[in-house]
């Protein structure tokens, strides 16, 4: 058979795969006259006539021709016309086999569900086609080219037996065109589902739905094609490549290592890059792993988008080093996606830090570095003596989520008679905050003639706020 392109040959091969089980029931329903191979009649039958006089060669070998495709069939019956009709039906079954298993397949409407549009998309080939209309249109071009008949007679029973061979043919161009139309009719409804989408999420869903639909019909998976810029390709393979190429293009932007105080909120922005302007909303699972643990110590599921906030409040982690792993759940959109994008970054959980913020008001000239350092050291010793399990920083700054702040406001006040030396005035404020909310606050102002007196008063202020620091300890030890 001369094939105009390689696709026609692949279709014919596909038909052979599916037609065998399809026609087993139909052949079983035929009379014994329609069975192959040829069985010689019993000796009691004698041949009384052949027509034509010589057995044609096409009985043993089906002719090959550039313009026609030939089929042969044989049947036997007690009436010659019945034998001819049975042989012709056998040829028609071969022609139908060439065109595929639509002859016996009940084709019904199938639907796939689109999560984005929440609408039903009607897909799949032909709706409500039946065997009679299909045979009428497909095999109408089959014609009988020749017959060979053998007539037998049994004198004992006065019975006749006719064995009829038939040579049928169909125009090759018509057959090839029908096969091409058959593949085209299967392919077009799937291809029509390939529409432009605004988000990577919806595009992945579209590709996944098409693959799922093709999976439901193995014949469609084999036959459906797509005319790509590089030539005609199998549609299933093409969609599978498009789906996983898109999925592999969705990635996380880099995330630097993070440090958070113990029992504080882990918060940072995460960026997702994709071939589309928008990735859409995709579920993301976040796991926090210890140094020697295969399972996450904590796991959360969040809705991810192009830029989303990773916020994990009240981490119940001891101080130390951890790994945070993010996995974008593309396989929940379609099981045909082979890999989920992932990223990991380091997390260091540190003790809660109390910040000593030194704010000097007024004229700085009268406040020396020695006075400032003396006050700060006095406060450090006082807090440590209170038993609060925190480390102190002498650098100015803001509390990071949770902890407490000590603010010193120092200024020199000119001497007031009868005093000859300036006064050192100190405002001390203790403020304890938890998860961004102030829980406790204490403030005192005192003044002394010299810095030594200010230090003494600062110590007394710390020691006098025992309840304040007890509350801090209980909270930090939770």
Describe the structure concisely for a colleague.
This protein has 478 residues and is of the alpha+beta class. The protein has helices at 6-29, 80-99, 131-138, 172-191, 200-216, 218-223, 235-248, 369-386, 451-463, 466-476, and strands at residues 46-51, 68-77, 110-113, 120-123, 143-154, 159-171, 225-228, 231-234, 251-252, 258-261, 266-273, 282-289, 298-304, 307-312, 320-328, 342-350, 353-360, 391-393, 403-413, 423-434, 437-448. It has 3 domains: 6-187, no CATH class; 252-350, Macroglobulin (MG2) domain (Immunoglobulin-like); 353-476, Ribosome hibernation promotion factor-like (Double Stranded RNA Binding Domain, 2-Layer Sandwich).
Structure characterization notes:
With 478 residues, the protein is of the alpha+beta class. The protein folds into three domains: 182 residues, no CATH class; 99 residues, Immunoglobulin-like (Sandwich), CATH 2.60.40.1930; 124 residues, Double Stranded RNA Binding Domain (2-Layer Sandwich). It is 32% helix and 33% strand. It has ten helices and 21 strands. Strands 10-16-15-12-13 form a five-stranded mixed sheet, with no helix packed on it. Strands 18-17-19-20-21 form a five-stranded mixed sheet, with helices on one face. Strand 7 and strand 8 form a beta hairpin. The chain is rod-shaped, with a radius of gyration of 44 Å. It starts with 5 loop residues before the first helix and ends with a helix. The N terminus is likely disordered.
């Amino acid at each position: 058979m001369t094939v105009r392109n390689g696709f026609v040959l692949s279709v014919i091969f596909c038909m052979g795969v599916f037609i065998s089980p399809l026609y087993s029931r139909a052949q079983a329903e035929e009379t014994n006259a329609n069975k192959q191979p040829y069985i010689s009649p019993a000796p009691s039958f004698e041949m009384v006539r052949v027509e034509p006089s010589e057995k044609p060669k096409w009985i043993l070998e089906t002719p090959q021709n550039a313009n026609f495709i030939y089929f042969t069939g044989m049947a036997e019956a007690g009436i010659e016309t019945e034998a001819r009709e049975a042989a012709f039906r056998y040829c028609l079954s071969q022609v139908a086999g060439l065109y595929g298993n639509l002859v016996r397949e009940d084709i019904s409407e199938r639907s796939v569900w689109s999560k984005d549009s929440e609408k039903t998309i009607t897909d799949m080939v032909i709706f409500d086609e039946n065997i009679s209309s299909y045979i009428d249109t497909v095999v109408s071009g089959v014609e009988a080219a020749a017959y060979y008949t053998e007539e037998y007679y049994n004198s004992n029973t006065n019975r006749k037996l006719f064995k009829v061979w038939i040579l049928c043919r169909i125009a090759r161009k018509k057959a090839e065109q029908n096969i091409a139309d058959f593949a085209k009719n299967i392919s077009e409804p799937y291809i029509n589902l390939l529409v432009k989408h605004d988000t990577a999420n919806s595009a992945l869903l579209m590709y996944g739905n098409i693959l799922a639909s093709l999976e439901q019909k193995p014949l469609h998976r084999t036959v459906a094609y797509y005319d790509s810029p590089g030539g005609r390709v199998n549609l299933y393979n093409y969609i599978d490549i498009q789906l996983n190429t898109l999925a592999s293009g969705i990635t996380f932007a880099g995330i630097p290592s993070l440090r958070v105080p113990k029992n504080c909120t882990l918060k940072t922005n995460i960026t997702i890059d994709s071939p589309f302007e928008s990735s859409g909303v995709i579920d993301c699972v976040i796991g926090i792993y210890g140094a020697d643990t295969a399972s996450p110590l904590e796991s959360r599921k969040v809705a991810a988008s192009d830029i989303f906030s990773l916020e994990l409040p009240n981490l119940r982690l001891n101080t130390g080093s951890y790994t945070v792993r993010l996995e974008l759940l593309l396989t929940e959109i379609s099981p045909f996606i082979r890999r989920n994008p992932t990223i990991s970054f380091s997390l260091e959980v540190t003790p809660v830090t109390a910040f000593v913020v030194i704010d000097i008001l007024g004229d700085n000239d009268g406040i020396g570095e020695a006075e400032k350092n003396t006050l700060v050291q006095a406060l450090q010793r006082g807090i440590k003596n209170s038993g609060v399990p925190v480390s102190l920083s002498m650098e100015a700054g803001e509390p990071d989520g949770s902890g407490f702040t000590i603010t010193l406001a120092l200024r020199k006040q000119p001497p007031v008679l009868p005093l000859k030396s300036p006064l050192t005035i100190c405002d001390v404020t203790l403020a304890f905050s938890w998860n961004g909310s102030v829980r406790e606050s204490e403030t005192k102002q005192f003044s002394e003639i010299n810095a030594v007196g200010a230090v003494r008063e600062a110590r007394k202020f710390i020691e006098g706020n025992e309840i304040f620091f007890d509350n801090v300890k209980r909270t930090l030890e939770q």
